[in-house]
């Protein structure tokens, strides 16, 4: 079975930084049409601006996906440019610490809104488009939806309460939506990763130098992954090679979740 995604159209959110950016770029390299989406217009323009071309395979979209109209505008842009949507990667993630004893700390609902509800609403709207555009197709998968999660979903850490709850909910959403959309021939999976050299982790390592040795100590493969290694898993789930795979969470963590419950560097 081919891992090719050439000619397919993908929407990738959280695509101005880190893993989302790496996935979007990988998809373009592999011949897909890609809409790069992010709220950070300056960063998105800096990273993608020169590649965006009305005649080419790359488009940019900036906006707050918590707004219903923004979601509809995004889908309209994608279908106007490329006629169809085959892949959705919900890579927009927010990481923040939570004070578990502070009743005024709003990080838990904020993180659930950003990491779960935004993905849920975009998935629902995109799935409807996929179903409609596939009305004349009687065989084959109509679309692949990929959610980015974290090993924080399976690791308890008081400072990451909101993020852990949000990502755990995202993984259950992945499984539930996979069952709901299976009769419609749309697959839904997730990639949960551990310590990946993203912008947020780089910042954390710069501020807390001791974190690097702690991460390596708790990772059997004894290194920090690059964003491209998450892209490998995303490409597999986007391609026909995973045509019989749905409702699964692929873990890319160097073996971290196998041996230790410490939540060092889980973002």
From TrEMBL:
EC number: 1.1.1.159
Pfam families: adh_short_C2
Listed GO MF terms: cholate 7-alpha-dehydrogenase (NAD+) activity
InterPro entries documented for this protein: NAD(P)-bd_dom_sf, SDR_fam
Domain of life assignment: Bacteria
Keywords for this protein: Oxidoreductase
Similarity comment text for this entry: Belongs to the short-chain dehydrogenases/reductases (SDR) family.
Name of the protein: Dehydrogenase
Organism: Wenxinia marina DSM 24838
Organism lineage string: Bacteria, Pseudomonadati, Pseudomonadota, Alphaproteobacteria, Rhodobacterales
